Known about the structure:
Elements: E1 18-19, E2 29-30, E3 35-36, E4 46-47, E5 52-53, E6 63-64, E7 69-70, E8 80-81, E9 86-87, E10 97-98, E11 103-104, E12 114-115, E13 120-121, E14 131-132, E15 137-138, E16 148-149, E17 154-155, E18 165-166, E19 171-172, E20 182-183, E21 189-192, E22 197-200
Antiparallel strand pairs: 1-2, 3-4, 5-6, 7-8, 9-10, 11-12, 13-14, 15-16, 17-18, 19-20, 21-22
Amino acid sequence: MIIGVLCCCCFGCSAPGKFTNQTGQIVCEDCAPGSVQSQSGQIECVLCESGQYMGQGGQKVCLDCPAGRASSAIGQTECTPCSAGHVQPLLGQEACVPCSNGTAQPLAEQTQCQLCAPGSFGNETAGSACNRCPEGQFQDLIEQDSCKACGLGEYTDLPGQSVCKQCAPGSFGNETGLSQCISWYVSGTHLNFDRLIRVPCDSALPARSRACQPRRTVRSGA
């Protein structure tokens, strides 16, 4: 609680922003930075509250911390900038707010988090950057905390993709989350149709398999 007692003999302290705590003193002192006094004839100054600051001495009122900054203690001469991954859109706040999942902020002293773009995700709070979806996964929406696996017959061979590619003619994808499709014809192997896997030519040919024949290799996505 701030004490505001009139100084009976302090004729010189008629201006706000000053004080004296000695009887008979004719020279008043300025309130120190981080404190203020809005009334005249007082024996002490008032510390700025949390969420406020005052960088100069001899002032009448404290200032609110600007957006992008905060102050959690009293008597501050300046407010602390929000660190990367944190923001503050309002004035006069005690703390910054961490960015939520699906958002990030790489810069300090910011007022808004950035939404993770398609092809990326943010799976932690207070993130300073969104992560690119890995190969075999994609994300077509904004502000997401995970990526999706490419479906059957699809693939992505690059990170950070918003859509999956279709397996090209002459290839197939029998699993989800593939980074490349499987070619029908690969030299030195044959295809087991029951399991959709390649088997070396020197192994016994299972039922419903494509016999080994010299063929041109067909690369995925060709």
